[in-house]
Task: structure prediction
Amino acid sequence: MLERQFKGYFRKAERLEGVTGELLLSQLERRLDNVVYRLGFASSRRQARELVVHRHFAVNSKSVDIPSFQVREGDVISIAANSKAQPFMEGIRTITSSRPVPAWLERDSDQGLGRVISLPRREHVQEQLDEQLIVNLYSR
Result:
């Protein structure tokens, strides 16, 4: 993600009601490319981004090719029908099947489906970072 796009996420989080740092992390976690990675449908975020761009996933049965697409609570992310049988998708699912899924997501590996159960909160973010430092930097 480039600086300009990140700044846009920050400005949006700043306008929303709540703790800016937590809202920023929630927005970043809800990006479709990140959700695909978290569900174990890609082995890296870079690969997830490429798979989304090449239309290998659908959100609520509609094909989406925008990695920055924001998923919402209740959305169903599925592997596209023509991609399920692809050998590379089977390989990815085999490699990532043991990766744990965050509490705000639900995965059905057999069906190639993922569901957003709730919006991500700060405690769901696994990376150790101090979001207050980001808020201080961008608030200038």
User: Anything to note?
Assistant: Residues 3-15 form the longest helix (13 residues). The chain has one domain: 3-138. Residues 3-138 form a domain with the Structural Genomics Hypothetical 15.5 Kd Protein In mrcA-pckA Intergenic Region; Chain A fold (CATH 3.10.290.10).
